[in-house]
TrEMBL record:
PANTHER family: CATALASE (PTHR42821), CATALASE-B (PTHR42821:SF1). This is Catalase. InterPro entries: Catalase, Catalase_AS, Catalase_clade2, Catalase_clade2_helical, Catalase_core, Catalase_immune_responsive, Catalase_large_C, Catalase_sf. Keywords: Heme, Hydrogen peroxide, Iron, Metal-binding, Oxidoreductase, Peroxidase. Its cofactor is heme. Pfam families: Catalase (PF00199), Catalase-rel (PF06628), Catalase_C (PF18011). Belongs to the catalase family. Decomposes hydrogen peroxide into water and oxygen; serves to protect cells from the toxic effects of hydrogen peroxide. It comes from Ideonella azotifigens. Its EC number is 1.11.1.6. It catalyses: 2 H2O2 = O2 + 2 H2O. Residues 86-474 form the Catalase core domain. Residues 50-69 are annotated as: Disordered.
Length: 758
């Protein structure tokens, strides 16, 4: 009903409204010259379901007395419906097709201020991309608190059950440039900006709970090593090259994160299906000034699911925007992604007892030691209006904390507190980036900071200092009750450059991760190392890395060495010969198996291959069963247009075998109908489609005669252990409804890795 309400809304919209144009509404075609939309139409209309979702940030006129660019985005939105074209000075433009010339065939004139303004603005359209995390996608949404936790923190979002805090979340890859592919093997950024009523809080995390290095001092080295090599600018968005592995193999503290980065975690199926982590130990501080450590966890409602590497590589060519499209389409269709926020809270005394150091960002706190307590949920329910203004200009800063949230002494975190503000100054052109609509807090801003590039605030009065008497002492200090007060952690030691002892245990938790995975996950991880290291040109780096892996797991090192065609080298010397005995050696919460999701197949992409002569009734039964579960079904045929079913009915085709490759679908349905099966069996594309689906562990359903297509593609019906493959379903004379049911159950399992034989 939500979707049909959105459609009705779309259908009722006027000419020239950009959004319906994007989703194929006929009225969006430009009106004829001289005719324009009725200027009385609302300037900003909610034309999609996603747009209709409002929060304090995304909608609503700004309150009297607040500045237009602070708080909600409404005041900054522009829509040209019913407007004439103007210059930036508001001068109406009569002709936007031709530059000013001395005669029709004469030279262009320097006087053409309209042309010069347009070209000059265009010349400066790009801003520097983020030095890391350049490629990303974002959405608006809200955080809802489950129950008040004032005993733990006074942070505004956690003060009442049901309290809603608007937020903006950006997901990203790390290494690739702005236009790079979404499915690269990489860590994913997971940055959340909470517009709390006590100021903005940015939780800038990743989808992996540990980091490559322990000290910010090494960050530029790490990034220089992973980015394209400086002499020839290759490879793009990939860590599979010499400089990266040279660096990390010399930095054994990276070993733990390498386990995650070579695992399926680094190739998520969707941004909607990955966890998020704050990574560092932060502090929660309550009203009484008491503090405990905290680690932040985001857990996706849809479960944690991944691609397989061969599939990720192919998607990179066939749909470089795979994750961006997935997020956008899910929100537009009303399937709002959701994550639960959980806290691991532990005291300083507890932390002292742990076998690892909680200030070391290469370590997790196993959930067996400190369970995760759910405290609220995040829902992303609105796509940005403008990619540049919002997704590109959003500026996350680790230094943006609110009363109730504070830092630990993690030395990586310390560097980050500096780096993010600093980078925005050059990326966004000055110190006033907080005034950009997407960055402006909902909470009022008042201080004596003034001027600078692109200043928008028009500060009134002659006072820009404190204390003052001329402005009645305003703005005045909030004092400890309302203002931010740093947690008074005692400090009394020598100034040194160095690391605490426990930081030197580089392998225990890497082994914990590997040993906690299922056999298919372990196989994928070994294959990840094999692929990356096989790309190196310097054999010594390869060997050094495998030597490091011997310390993690001799079994893993042997598998990787075998794949690389080398002997297992002697282990790398350890920095710490006798690390503390770990509390846990296996953790069920590290395998993706622990996060199957809610068992629903909503938004899963299902391809239905069709051709003339299909059995329309069987197909319709399966299609409606899938759509009842909110799966996204696409009919794919040899060409666009309509397919004529055996009963003469017409089926509208949405994709072709050429433009809709198997890798972007989670499952495939092969049609019944002798003629259709005959036609499809003549096409190489059909076999490739089926083989790819099978090899990537996906669910296949063959209706009626389509079992012949499985035979033609050589698809086994049994797993290597001889049992029936639950992911290959054949109707084989049974009824279509039963087949659809089995198909839906198998699709809910995400993949069928037991099938993998390569
Ligand atoms: Fe960072 C961006 C996450 C370590 C310096 N980082 C950036 C983004 C994410 C992270 C998600 C993108 C935000 C967005 O969507 O705009 N970074 C992390 C995590 C880290 C980490 C989880 C370790 C726990 N980062 C880190 C260090 C430094 C930086 C140690 C520097 C000392 N990161 C930056 C940056 C970026 C950035 C250069 C680039 C663009 C930006 O900040 O806005 O300042």
């Amino acid at each position: 009903t939500q979707a049909s309400a959105a459609q009705a809304l779309v259908a009722s919209l006027p000419h020239n409204s950009n959004k319906p144009g994007e989703i194929g509404h006929a009225n969006a075609i430009s009106p004829p010259e001289g005719q324009h939309a009725d200027g009385a139409q609302p300037v900003v209309s909610a034309s999609t379901l996603s747009e209709a979702n409002a929060s304090d940030k995304t909608r609503g006129p700004h309150a009297p007395g607040t500045n237009a660019w602070q708080g909600d985005l409404e005041a900054a939105r522009a829509d040209a419906s019913g407007q004439v074209l103007t210059t930036n000075q508001g001068v109406a433009i009569a002709d936007n097709q031709n530059s000013l010339k001395a005669g029709l065939r004469g030279p262009a004139l320097l006087e053409d201020f309209i042309l010069r303004e347009k070209i000059t603005h265009f010349d400066h359209e790009r801003i520097p991309e983020r030095i890391v995390h350049a490629r990303g996608s974002a959405a608006h949404g809200f955080f809802e608190c489950y129950e008040a936790i004032p005993d733990l923190t006074k942070a505004a979002p956690f003060q009442a059950a049901g309290k809603i805090t608007p937020l903006f979340t950006r997901f990203s890859t790390v290494a690739g440039e702005r236009g790079s592919v979404d499915t690269a093997r990489d860590i994913r950024g997971f940055a959340v900006k909470f517009y709390t009523d006590e100021g903005n809080w940015d939780l800038v995390g990743n989808n992996i709970p540990v980091f490559f290095i322990q000290d910010a001092m090494k960050f530029p080295d790490l990034i220089h090593a992973v980015k394209p090599e400086p002499h020839h600018g290759m490879p793009q968005a990939a860590s599979a090259h010499d400089t990266f592995w040279d660096f990390v193999s010399l930095m054994p503290e990276s070993t733990h994160v390498l386990m995650w980065a070579m695992s399926d975690r680094a190739i998520p199926r969707s941004y909607r299906m990955m966890q998020g982590f704050g990574v560092h130990s932060y502090r929660l501080v309550n009203e009484q000034g008491q503090s405990q450590f905290v680690k932040f966890h985001w857990t996706p409602k849809l479960g944690v699911h991944s691609l397989v590497w061969d599939e990720a590589l192919k998607i990179a060519g066939m749909d470089p925007d795979f994750h961006r499209r997935d997020l956008w389409e899910a929100i537009e269709s009303g399937q709002y992604p959701e994550w639960e926020l959980g806290l691991q809270v532990f005291s300083e005394e507890q932390a002292e007892q742990f076998s690892f150091d909680v200030l070391d960002a290469t370590k997790i706190v196993p959930e067996e030691l400190v369970p995760v307590r759910p405290v609220g949920r995040m829902v992303l329910n609105r796509n940005p209006d403008n990619f540049f203004a919002e997704t590109e200009q959003v500026a996350f800063c680790v230094a943006h904390v609110v009363p109730g949230i504070d830092f630990s002494n993690d030395p990586l975190l310390a560097g980050r507190i500096h780096s993010y503000v600093d980078t925005q100054i050059s990326r966004l052109g000055g110190p006033n980036f907080h005034e950009l609509p997407i960055n402006a807090p909902l909470a009022p801003v008042a201080n004596n900071q003034r001027d600078g590039m692109h200043r928008r605030t028009v500060n009134r009065g002659r006072v820009a200092y404190e204390p003052n008497s001329l402005a009645g002492g305003c703005p005045f200090q909030a004092g400890a009750m309302k203002g931010f007060v740093s947690f008074p952690q005692p400090v009394q030691e020598d100034k040194v450059r160095g690391k605490p002892e426990k930081f030197a245990d580089h392998y225990t938790q890497a082994s914990l991760f590997f040993d906690s995975l299922t056999p298919p996950e372990q196989r994928h991880l070994a294959a990840g190392f094999r692929f990356e290291l096989s790309k190196l040109t310097v054999p010594a780096i390869r060997e050094r890395m495998v030597a490091s892996l011997v310390n993690v797991s001799p079994e893993l090192a042997a598998a990787v060495a075998e794949g690389l065609g080398i002997d297992v080298p002697a282990p790398l010397p350890r920095a710490l010969e006798t690390p503390a005995k770990p509390e846990v050696t296996q953790s069920a919460r590290l395998s993706q198996k622990a996060f199957p999701g809610d068992g629903r197949i909503a938004t899963r992409q299902v391809a239905m291959l069709v051709a003339d002569g299909v059995d329309g009734a069987a197909l319709a039964a399966v299609k409606s069963a899938l759509e009842a579960e909110q799966a996204a079904v696409t009919l794919i045929a040899p060409k666009l247009g309509n397919v004529i079913a055996a009963d003469g009915s017409k089926l509208a085709v949405r994709g072709t075998l050429e433009n809709s490759p198997p890798v972007v679908f989670d499952a495939v349905v092969l049609p019944a109908g002798e003629a259709a099966v005959g036609a499809l069996s003549q096409l190489g594309h059909t076999q490739e489609f089926i083989v790819n689906q099978y090899r990537h562990g996906k669910t296949l359903l063959a209706l009626g005669e389509a079992s012949a297509l499985l035979d033609q593609a050589g698809i086994p019906r049994n797993l290597p252990d001889g049992s029936a493959d639950p992911g290959v379903i054949e109707q084989a004379g049974g009824d279509a409804a039963a087949a659809a049911k089995a198909f839906i159950a198998a699709l809910a399992l995400h993949r069928h890795p037991a099938r993998e034989t390569d």
